């Protein structure tokens, strides 16, 4: 693993110094992850502080085989999973409901859009994506949050969740299609051209596009091979991933930073909500 800027490996640093530096380097991302998973700001603030308390307690177990950020993501997702088990179980839409083959129109955002109209469309898409991701079952929500919002590699995201890479990709692909459908709901459209290939070929092309998005690379098949309908669908998938990336929360309130530091202080006890409220952190 890479050393810190001072040439010291994270795993060799004293615990208090390491956790303090990790809070500054990754605190905002851990809070943002918790916010996307818990869907509640107060719960996210508490969970982020608890994650660093757990990191403080477990620092001796960090060997440096993974990035410290990946290790923190693992702690935070496990904490959120335990918390989410107390809530109602959500159902994932059937695959047939989110596949694009039955769609009869192309959305306006895939056909044109600039200036004020494009800004309006973008704002609507961001809100729709937030709601769609929040409504996914936890296993699918955490997969797309790690992959498309926090832009972890397939290998890193699968490692965080302790699942096989193919399982991770299956969940990301289903979740991405569900978010895409939410973005297109209610959008102005024009009639879509008929596909020129059998359904099986279209599905193979769709899977190839999803794999390309997973790798962050261009589509490996020449545009001259792809029909107009598939090109339009692929543009909406590009747009979906782009909107998801915009959902990353990059700022952290100073009150949350103080709560993280308190939680990770000697003893590793997470600061309770009522103590943070006294400090003026409840909003």
General description of the model:
The protein is mainly α and 283 residues long. It has 2 domains: 104 residues, RNA polymerase sigma factor, region 2, helix turn helix motif (Rna Polymerase Sigma Factor, Chain: A); 151 residues, Orthogonal Bundle (Arc Repressor Mutant, subunit A). 63% of the residues lie in helices and 2% in strands. Strands 1-2 form a two-stranded antiparallel sheet. Helix 2 crosses helix 3, helix 6 crosses helix 9 and helix 10 runs parallel beside helix 11. The C terminus is likely disordered.
Structure summarized in a few sentences:
The chain is mainly alpha-helical and 283 residues long. It has helices at residues 15-38, 41-57, 68-84, 95-98, 108-111, 115-134, 138-149, 154-161, 165-184, 199-215, 228-245, 254-263, 273-278; strands spanning 105-107, 189-191.
Please state the overall shape, judged from the principal axes of the Cα atoms. Answer: elongated
The H-and-E topology, N to C, reads as HHHHEHHHHHEHHHH
Strand content: under 5%
Mean pLDDT: 84
Q: Which second-level CATH architecture of the largest domain applies?
A: Orthogonal Bundle
State the total count of DSSP E strands. 2
- Number of helical regions: 13
Q: Determine the fraction of residues in helical runs and give it as a percent range.
A: 55-70%
Round the Cα radius of gyration to an integer and report it: 21 Å
Distance between the termini: 39 Å
**CATH classification class of the largest domain:** Mainly Alpha
CATH topology of the largest domain: Arc Repressor Mutant, subunit A
Which ranges are low-confidence, i.e. pLDDT below 50, for 5 or more consecutive residues?
274-283
Total tally of structural domains: 2
In what order do the strands lie side by side in the largest sheet?
1-2
Please give the largest β-sheet. 2 strands, antiparallel
Which structural category do the helix and sheet elements fall into?
mainly alpha
Find the CATH superfamily of the largest domain.
Answer: Winged helix-like DNA-binding domain superfamily/Winged helix DNA-binding domain
């Amino acid at each position: 693993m890479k050393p810190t800027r001072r040439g010291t490996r994270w795993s060799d640093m004293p615990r208090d110094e390491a956790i303090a530096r990790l809070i500054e380097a990754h605190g905002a991302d851990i809070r943002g992850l918790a916010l996307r998973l818990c869907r509640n700001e107060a719960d996210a603030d508490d969970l982020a502080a608890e994650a660093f308390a757990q990191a403080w307690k477990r620092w001796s177990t960090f060997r440096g085989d993974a990035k410290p950020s990946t290790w923190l993501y693992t702690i935070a997702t496990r904490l959120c999973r335990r918390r989410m088990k107390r809530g109602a179980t959500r159902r994932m839409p059937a695959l047939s409901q989110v596949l694009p083959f039955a769609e009869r129109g192309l959305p306006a955002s895939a056909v044109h859009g600039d200036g004020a109209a494009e800004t309006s469309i973008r704002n609507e898409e961001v809100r729709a994506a937030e709601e769609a991701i929040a409504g996914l079952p936890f296993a699918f929500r955490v997969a797309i949050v790690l992959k498309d919002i926090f832009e972890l590699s397939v290998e890193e995201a699968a490692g965080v969740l302790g699942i096989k890479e193919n399982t991770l990709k299956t969940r990301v692909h289903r979740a991405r299609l569900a978010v895409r459908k939410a973005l297109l709901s209610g959008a102005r459209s024009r009639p879509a051209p008929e596909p020129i290939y059998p359904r099986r070929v279209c599905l193979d092309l769709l899977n190839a596009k999803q794999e390309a998005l997973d790798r962050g690379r261009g589509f490996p098949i020449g545009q001259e091979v792809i029909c107009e309908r598939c090109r339009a669908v692929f543009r909406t998938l590009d747009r979906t991933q782009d909107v998801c990336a915009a959902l990353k929360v990059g700022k952290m309130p100073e009150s949350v930073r103080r709560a993280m530091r308190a939680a990770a202080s000697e003893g590793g006890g997470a600061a309770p909500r009522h103590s943070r409220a006294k400090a003026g952190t409840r909003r």
